[in-house]
Design brief:
Layout lengths: L1 E2 L3 E5 L3 H10 L3 E5 L2 H6 L3 H4 L3 H4 L3 E5 L11 H4 L6 H17 L3 E6 L4 H6 L1 H17 L3 E6 L4 E2 L9 E2 L5 H14 L3 E6 H17 L16 H7 L4 E5 L19 H13 L6 E3 L10 H19 L3 E2 L1
Parallel strand pairs: 1-12, 2-3, 2-11, 3-4, 4-5, 5-6, 6-9, 9-10, 10-11
Antiparallel strand pairs: 7-8
């Protein structure tokens, strides 16, 4: 039987935002690092108020974003000769681990296909070497790689969307390759919003491709949410629990679940594949000092879990 799921809240380096998430209720924080950390990472101990690190339990540190929401993907930051920016993220995680006396998870995205990951021998060799050094220098820090959406789309730009190769089993294959070298210190993050967007866009793409089989699609063409849970089984360290509306971008991204049945179905897949990892409610707000959407989503999860508890399928 599954125990109650640990619920984390995502927060930026803003004390008022952190206090609001504490007031909302959570088991731990996932730091949402922004571009300012790229500049201030070398001096984070003195550049930010110390209370940010000590006011509430920290569990996860998310690799920062560049300007305009561009993501520091694994294949970007780990190919540089100078690993300083990503080293500062690991150093921050170890700093929090020393304060809270438990392991800290660093989360990073990757849009690599597994084919490219294997073919980029110089990158792979550099990645393994840097990770080996990081894991030695920061013994309480683990790494988890997050699934991405099938394309990057910026409505305010004129160019076409950038299609991503690594959107599904590419990630889980890479994680398993890395686990052969680093064991359980490497894992995956299953982002529900990203997975649902992938299912929507890839289903539409495959339906339009008349050269592909339209019935009895082979397993590798199955982008369903159930298949996502199955692919991440046994390697998932964290779930980002959120939804999307419309095209899934900008204000449509990381929205709360409005349908309890949809959220309940996800919890059933969590149970079906014997997950025991925590969930971060990565929920967008109009005002992060008044997190209405987070409160509603957390209350929905609590109600769904309480219902399962009374039905005898969950432990306290």
């Amino acid at each position: 039987m599954n125990r109650r799921i640990r619920i984390y809240a995502k927060a930026s380096f803003v004390p008022e935002e952190i206090r609001e998430k504490i007031n909302c209720g959570c088991d731990g924080l996932e730091y949402n690092l922004r571009e300012d950390f790229i500049k201030n990472g070398d001096c984070f101990e003195t550049c930010y108020p110390k209370e940010i690190f000590t006011m509430y339990n920290v569990e996860v540190v998310h690799v920062p974003f560049y300007a305009q929401g561009l993501v520091m993907n694994m294949e970007h930051v780990f190919q540089h000769k100078d690993p300083g920016p990503i080293r500062n993220v690991f150093r921050l995680a170890q700093y929090c681990a020393d304060i809270w006396q438990h392991r800290i998870l660093v989360v990073i995205h990757s849009s690599l296909s597994y084919f490219d990951f294997i073919e980029y021998e110089l990158f792979r060799s550099h990645l393994v070497g840097v990770l080996r050094q990081f894991f030695a220098d920061f013994p309480m820090v683990d790494l988890a790689i997050e699934n991405v959406v099938p394309m990057e789309y910026k409505p305010d730009r004129k160019e076409s969307p950038r299609l991503c190769n690594g959107t599904f089993t590419d990630l889980t294959d890479m994680v398993r390759w890395l686990r052969e070298r680093f064991g359980e210190r490497i894992g995956s993050v299953l982002d529900i919003c990203h997975a649902a967007m992938t299912e929507k866009y890839m289903t539409a793409l495959l339906a339009a491709a008349d050269f592909l089989p339209q019935e009895e699609c082979p397993d590798e063409l199955d982008y369903s949410m159930d298949h996502f849970f199955r692919a991440h089984q046994g390697i998932c360290k964290l779930i980002h629990f959120n939804d999307f509306i419309g095209n899934g971008y900008l204000q449509n991204h990381g929205t709360p679940f409005r349908d309890p049945k949809k959220a309940g179905d996800l919890l059933e897949m969590y149970r079906k594949y014997n997950y025991d990892c925590p969930m971060t409610l990565e929920i967008q707000e109009e005002n992060y000092k008044n997190c209405i959407n987070y409160r509603q989503t957390r209350a929905m999860l609590e109600t769904l879990q309480e219902s399962r508890y009374h039905s005898g399928t969950i432990e306290k």
